[in-house]
Design a protein that fits this description.
mainly alpha; single chain
Length: 459
């Protein structure tokens, strides 16, 4: 007998399903990333340009750690959804339990690497002097809470699969409220520096990770903890399904490292002494500004993935196309609104992260946002298509989009646009997403032909 969640995935009208799962998903993902925006505002307004640049240097390494959790969490979500679509709850529960164990073990290992190799890793990204010291202290603090904080990212996927969409949204909102409270306490009351910022985000995510596990431990969710039965085939399946998101995240972090190194060079060349730190700080402003928009796109795509995977496993191919169509339309609208907000209010957004007296940083950041914003006219195509392929257990196609978007396209354009100086780097994001949208359209056309053949065979 199907559960309420399974009936929702199998029978609810696509647009109604979209609003029931995607809207809370958007809020949930936005809430999950808004802590990053709060962190940027606190660091920029209280600690200044130097701390802002140091955190941006350390952040790619922190996010690589979380990317491994995403690799396992997203990689497990697709086979879990497909197994549920086939009515195989035993397999779904084993994949779920095994993936949580894997995340914990991998995060312990990565936490040790981040802590003990913080100095050489920060040097690798061009940090030295005071910038190096600040980056190392931020990185080591984040490493201490690595295991639980990493699990927080994956539990969000499992809550949505189990139908706890609103619960996921509430937990993410509470996480950000707790982060804001801890940031206020550590930075304003205790007068701590970037260590307080790293501690605030790590503690809030760890606390909410524990809360998110309660429905599964209490056996109130569709998925339940069982004794994990790990095997090579399962690890391979999870790694294959999660590799597109992982490659996207890791490649993006490697690209960020290359960007930071390039910005240190171009900043001095274009802006003179101290220009490298300013250029890296502008890049940080762009990343924080992006955190206002990208969660809305990923919130839609991630929320629809369980429904897509479930119906693919059940052989409901027409329903798969209709649900995906709702996702593309919704994300196109979000992309247009995001571009409009960033284009018309770049000075307001930049002023959230930059002190009023730091005129040069504020002016360059405003200009950079106005160039960068056009990326969102195209970004939704690649995001939705990659998620679509992942949900249908087609990791190779998703990986092509992922690697192209996060590494190949930006690195190629970094060289092609070098002549344009810092403007070439700000515009790099637009070119990357145009190329990603083109590649996505080509791969999507092939997928539609495959679905059409399956429909013909079924009839």
């Amino acid at each position: 007998m199907k559960t309420k969640t399974e009936l929702m995935y199998a029978t609810m009208r696509p647009w109604r399903l979209f609003f029931i799962v995607a809207m809370p998903g958007m809020v949930s993902m936005f809430a999950m990333s808004i802590y990053s925006v709060f962190e940027g505002i606190f660091i920029g307004q209280i600690l200044g340009e130097g701390a802002f640049a140091a955190v941006n240097i350390a952040m790619p390494l922190v996010m690589i750690n979380f990317s491994l959790a995403d690799l396992i969490g997203v990689g497990a979500s697709a086979p879990i959804s497909v197994a549920l679509g086939k009515g195989d709850h035993e397999t779904a529960n084993n994949v779920f339990s095994s993936s949580v164990l894997m995340i914990f073990l991998v995060s312990v290992l990565m936490g040790c690497v981040m802590f003990f190799a913080a100095v050489p890793l920060s040097r690798l990204m061009g940090a030295d002097g005071a910038l190096l010291d600040t980056s190392v202290r931020y990185l080591r603090t984040a490493a201490l809470c690595s295991p639980l904080a990493a699990i927080f990212f994956a539990m969000d996927n499992y809550l949505r699969i189990s139908g706890f969409v609103k619960t996921s949204m509430v937990i993410n909102i509470c996480c950000n409220l707790l982060t804001l409270g801890l940031l206020t306490f550590f930075l304003l009351v205790c007068k701590m520096d970037v260590v307080g910022s790293a501690l605030a985000t790590s503690l809030s995510m760890s606390t909410c990770a524990i809360v998110a596990m309660v429905p599964f431990v209490a056996k109130r969710a569709l998925l339940r903890f069982t004794r994990p039965r790990l095997c090579f085939a399962l690890i391979k399946q999870i790694a294959a399904c999660g590799s597109p998101v992982f490659l996207n995240n890791v490649s993006g972090r490697v690209t960020s490292i290359l960007m930071n190194i390039s910005l240190m060079t171009l900043g001095v060349k274009v802006l003179g002494e101290g220009g490298g730190q300013t250029a890296v700080a502008v890049y940080a402003v762009l990343m924080y500004a992006s955190d206002l928009c990208w969660p809305l796109l990923y919130g839609i795509s991630d929320s629809l993935s369980p429904a897509l995977g479930y119906n693919w496993g059940a052989g409901n191919y027409d329903r798969v196309k209709r649900i995906a169509g709702c996702g593309y339309v919704g994300m196109a609208l979000v992309g247009f609104v995001s571009t409009s907000v960033l284009f018309f209010f770049p000075d307001v957004i930049a002023s959230w992260f930059v002190k009023a007296e730091e005129i040069r940083l504020l002016t360059i950041s405003t200009h950079a946002i106005r160039l960068f914003c056009f990326a969102y006219l195209f970004r939704w195509v690649g995001v939705m298509t990659q998620s679509f392929f992942t949900a249908l257990e087609k990791p190779l196609s998703a990986a092509f989009i992922s690697i192209g978007t996060a590494f190949v396209f930006p690195v190629v354009l970094l060289g092609a646009l070098w002549y344009f100086g810092l403007d070439g780097i700000w515009f790099n994001f637009v070119g990357v997403n145009v190329l990603a949208a083109t590649l996505s359209a080509i791969l999507l056309r092939r997928l539609m032909k495959e679905i059409h053949k399956k429909e013909m065979l079924k009839t």
